[in-house]
């Protein structure tokens, strides 16, 4: 089971003041770069300022309005891994009632050069990270176009926020849009999509999951069995019967048996029996919050 932890520890220097007209929010970002990236301070700063200038929702510090404070960091998981730009900021006061969190974050990969990201790669990462923050604010304002921006971003952190949004609202109208994400290269995304489809999907989505199961790793396969148990229907029950009889992995076979029993009885397993596969990041408040 994978537990998604916060991708960025924010240092927020002040609370954001209200922008009652829903206009652009001036943003002041501090940089927190690791020693190996200290010489990138100038290009990172320039990339972020350019992205803020081009933003329809945010603006560089110094523009009219009350300033929103936040932090940007550049990290990588290993010496040979690409750099990731993380940007976080306080939720503006006029949107706080719409969010379940006090700060929003967004991340974007800065190219594939593991040694030193180019200025172009940093500029692209800054633009995509700021776009992810814009999308979250649009969703909070009731503009559903922000959801498609997050889902099509290609950035796991942004996709996971979108999945939380769909799950919290039980937004069944978006279920079909999630199916292609079952082929995501990111394990967290695949597992989260299965979990959300198990909540908002239909018999048709159960059939889509069955078609993709052979591509999944063991962790995602377990989540697929759980999703099929919740969705039910002919395709789900038929596949779970097959899995319960033919699964080679003893743990997965037991999972398939439990899922089959649940699908046949119509009673979902208890939370204790089926812990959540992925803890999704919170975004805007849903009707259940």
UniProtKB/TrEMBL annotation:
Residues 253-289 are annotated as: Disordered. InterPro entries: ARM-like, ARM-type_fold. It comes from the Bacteria. This is HEAT repeat-containing protein. It comes from Nannocystis exedens.
């Amino acid at each position: 089971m994978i537990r998604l932890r916060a991708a960025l520890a924010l240092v927020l220097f002040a609370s954001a003041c209200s922008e009652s007209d829903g206009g652009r929010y001036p943003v002041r970002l501090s940089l927190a770069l690791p020693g190996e990236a200290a010489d990138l301070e100038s290009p990172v700063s320039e990339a972020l300022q350019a992205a803020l200038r081009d933003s329809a929702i945010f603006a560089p510090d110094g523009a009219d309005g009350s300033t929103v404070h936040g932090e940007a960091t550049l990290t990588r998981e290993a010496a040979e891994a690409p750099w990731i730009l993380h940007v976080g900021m306080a939720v503006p006061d006029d949107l706080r009632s719409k969010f379940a969190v006090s700060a929003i974050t967004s991340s974007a990969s800065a190219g594939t050069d593991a040694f030193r990201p180019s200025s172009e790669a940093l500029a692209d990462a800054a633009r995509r990270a700021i776009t992810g923050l814009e999308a979250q604010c649009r969703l909070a304002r009731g503009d559903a176009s922000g959801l498609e921006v997050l889902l099509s971003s290609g950035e796991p952190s942004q996709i996971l926020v979108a999945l939380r949004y769909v799950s919290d609202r039980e937004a069944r109208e978006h279920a079909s849009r999630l199916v292609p994400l079952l082929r995501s290269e990111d394990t967290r995304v695949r597992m989260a999509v299965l979990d959300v489809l198990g909540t908002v999907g239909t018999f048709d989505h159960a059939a889509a999951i069955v078609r993709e199961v052979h591509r999944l790793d063991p962790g995602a396969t377990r989540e697929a069995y759980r999703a099929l148990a919740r969705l039910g229907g002919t395709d789900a029950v038929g596949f779970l019967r097959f899995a319960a009889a033919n699964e080679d992995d003893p743990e997965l076979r037991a999972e398939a048996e439990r899922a089959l029993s649940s699908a046949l009885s119509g009673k979902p397993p208890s939370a204790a029996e089926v812990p959540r596969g992925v803890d999704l990041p919170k975004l805007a408040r849903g009707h259940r919050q």
